[in-house]
């Protein structure tokens, strides 16, 4: 039996660059400034400055304005129009760090500190892993996977996730798993439930129900906002899954939406589209599972996607000649026709080798590469009890950015 994990990531482009010996000595001081007057950039300047001052024991090596020629000028810019997740520009003593969003900027700040600490022993950075980017050179790049949510105890810590640029299902998803009933609360309206054999069946939902739609709308607004307005507005992910059985609503509205006796894709897809239009900053997913295994007939909105379970894949290096692998790829191909946002819910270990240190490292890397090669915006998951050491082994596989060196 495979041990369930949680997952995944979405990927992008590139190739990797890694450690170079540096020719220049560490600077004696650092001047940190924002590019332009962007308030968000200034916030991250303050953050980096505070981090360096604390880690250097407030020894006056971090400067605001006047600095000697030997100082390293670090410029910070949060640029939401950036066409990559991040960009590093290095010209002499000037280092410019650009990020497309705040999450990536936070990761870059820690990358920068870790990288500086390799040469400057005054910077205390024992809590940080080695930098994955070389800031001696200019480069730009993207993370291989959009969502990087390995489920492990060490990845439960918000501080660790900020440093490692990973996600956690409890914080990034407003609705997850077969939890629609929890979101809707106590509802007595029978129109919520599936019509089956002429009767309402409370074991399953009618996804054309107005009560269900408005219940979800209220749940999202009350708990997560619309993603646009209010302090700290941010995007959340919501997974709309039928309950875990094969019942499919046969009411006239659901059948008009495309439901069949075996497939609820029609009504679920229509609900996703309605929610995606109502909340354009949030992301809405369904699952390629049981009654929603089939992809819809037309492309989904950009803020919709699908979770695809990899439970049928063998836990050894993938061979595309194997039937289960080709079937999995066929499923991905079908969904790729309608969405570019495919998250794979993967598994990385068995109960029978639960205590083996790295039982699934090679197959996981193989699967990760396969997914990138096929250009799916996918991927992966991991075990429930992964230790910090194991997680650190997996981290470069998933979190190392793909970047192109430009200088
Ligand atoms: Zn229905």
TrEMBL record:
Signal peptide: 1-23
Alphabetical keyword list: Signal
InterPro entries linked: DUF4838
Pfam family, one: DUF4838
PANTHER family, A to Z: ALPHA GLUCURONIDASE N-TERMINAL DOMAIN-CONTAINING PROTEIN, COAGULATION FACTOR 5/8 TYPE, C-TERMINAL
UniProt-recorded name of the protein: DUF4838 domain-containing protein
């Amino acid at each position: 039996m495979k041990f369930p994990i949680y997952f995944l990531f979405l990927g992008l482009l590139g190739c990797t660059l890694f450690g170079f010996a540096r020719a220049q000595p560490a600077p004696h001081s650092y001047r940190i400034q924002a590019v332009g007057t962007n308030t968000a950039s200034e916030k991250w300047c303050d953050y980096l400055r505070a981090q360096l001052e604390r880690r250097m024991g407030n020894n006056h090596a971090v400067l605001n304005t006047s600095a000697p020629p030997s100082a390293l000028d670090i410029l910070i810019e949060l640029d939401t129009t950036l066409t990559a997740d991040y960009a590093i520009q290095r010209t002499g003593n000037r280092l410019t760090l650009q990020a497309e969003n705040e999450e990536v900027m936070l990761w870059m700040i820690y990358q920068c500190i870790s990288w500086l600490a390799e040469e400057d022993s005054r910077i205390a950075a024992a809590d940080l892993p080695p930098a994955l980017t070389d800031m001696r050179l200019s480069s730009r790049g993207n993370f291989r996977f959009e969502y990087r949510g390995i489920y492990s105890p060490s990845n439960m810590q918000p501080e660790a996730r900020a440093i490692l640029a990973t996600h956690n299902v409890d914080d990034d998803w407003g609705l997850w798993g077969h939890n629609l009933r929890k979101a809707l609360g106590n509802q007595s309206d029978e129109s919520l439930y599936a019509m089956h054999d002429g009767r309402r069946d409370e074991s399953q939902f009618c996804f054309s129900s107005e009560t269900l739609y408005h219940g979800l709308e209220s749940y999202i607004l009350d708990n997560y906002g619309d993603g646009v307005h209010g302090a700290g507005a941010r995007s959340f992910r919501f997974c709309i899954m039928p309950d875990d059985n094969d019942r499919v609503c046969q009411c006239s509205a659901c059948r008009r939406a495309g439901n069949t006796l075996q497939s609820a894709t029609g009504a679920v897809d229509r609900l996703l589209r309605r929610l995606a239009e109502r909340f354009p900053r949030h992301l809405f997913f369904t699952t390629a599972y049981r009654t929603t295994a089939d992809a819809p007939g037309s492309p989904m909105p950009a803020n919709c996607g699908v979770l695809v379970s990899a439970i049928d894949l063998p836990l050894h290096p993938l061979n595309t000649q194997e039937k289960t692998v080709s079937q999995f790829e066929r499923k991905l191909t079908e969904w790729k026709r309608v969405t570019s946002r495919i998250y794979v819910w993967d598994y990385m270990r068995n109960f029978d080798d639960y205590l083996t240190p790295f039982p699934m490292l090679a197959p996981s890397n193989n699967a990760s590469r396969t997914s990138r090669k096929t250009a799916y915006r996918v991927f992966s998951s991991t075990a429930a009890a992964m230790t910090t050491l194991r997680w650190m082994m997996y981290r470069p596989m998933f979190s190392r950015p793909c970047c192109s060196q430009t200088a």
